[in-house]
Write a structure and sequence with these properties.
This protein has twelve helices and no strands. The chain is mainly alpha-helical. It has one domain (about 1-199): Hypothetical protein af1432. The longest helix is centred in the N-terminal third of the chain and has 18 residues, at about 20-40. The mean pLDDT is about 90.
């Protein structure tokens, strides 16, 4: 089953060797190791490791989007760490990987729904774009949502459509209007996952 798969260190390195420089590759490998140590024993509701989820988000970026920007890949591996590991905070991430990764990790797990109608959408968008490119945030958030929607098992989930809607209802209407090809790819693939729940 999809939710039991993960992106191995060996596959990750094989996909990147020769495409990025050795220093960046070393940072990505260090992020992989940190995520493994911090998240492997943290379990999702389906009993699988949260670490598996983080590696699959990284895999979506590399293999489906041909996205090999090191900061995005590191963010994908570490985006759950601050929320789920008490020993690691934003200062530690900043010291080891830089402020971009630390900030991206914070906003991807922000309790405030960035695009929820009840919030000030313009203010929240400005909060992001002052620190990281908005399209980077959208790619990361949508890749995470795509992995989560692919992991929904309609044979054991009581109400898969309800879970799908809760994951997508705020960000999809906003992302649909963005013309970036990678964002549109993610939006279309997220939408296609909904069809599984009616088969």
């Amino acid at each position: 089953m999809y939710n039991k798969t993960y992106y191995s260190r060996e596959d990750l390195l094989a996909d990147l060797i020769g495409k990025i420089d050795a220093l960046d590759l070393n940072k990505i490998e260090s992020a992989y190791e940190m995520a493994d140590n911090a998240l492997f024993d943290k379990l999702l509701n389906d009993g699988t490791s949260l670490f598996f989820h983080s590696t699959r988000v990284c895999k979506i970026l590399i293999r489906e989007l041909n996205q090999i920007e090191p900061e995005l890949l590191i963010s994908s591996l570490l985006h759950e760490v601050i929320l789920h590991c008490e020993e690691i905070n934003s200062e530690i991430l900043t010291f080891n990987f830089g402020s971009y990764i630390s900030f991206m990790s914070e906003i991807l797990n922000d309790d405030i729904e960035i695009f929820a109608i009840k919030n000030n959408e313009i203010e929240n968008i400005q909060k992001i774009s002052n620190r990281v490119p908005l399209e980077d945030y959208l790619i990361m958030k949508l890749a995470e949502i795509l992995d989560k929607t692919r992991s929904i098992d309609p044979t054991i989930n009581f109400n898969p459509m309800s879970e799908f809607i809760s994951l997508t209802q705020n960000i999809l209407p906003f992302a649909e209007n963005n013309q970036n090809q990678k964002i549109q790819y993610l939006v279309n693939n997220i939408k296609s996952e909904k069809n599984r729940f009616f088969n």
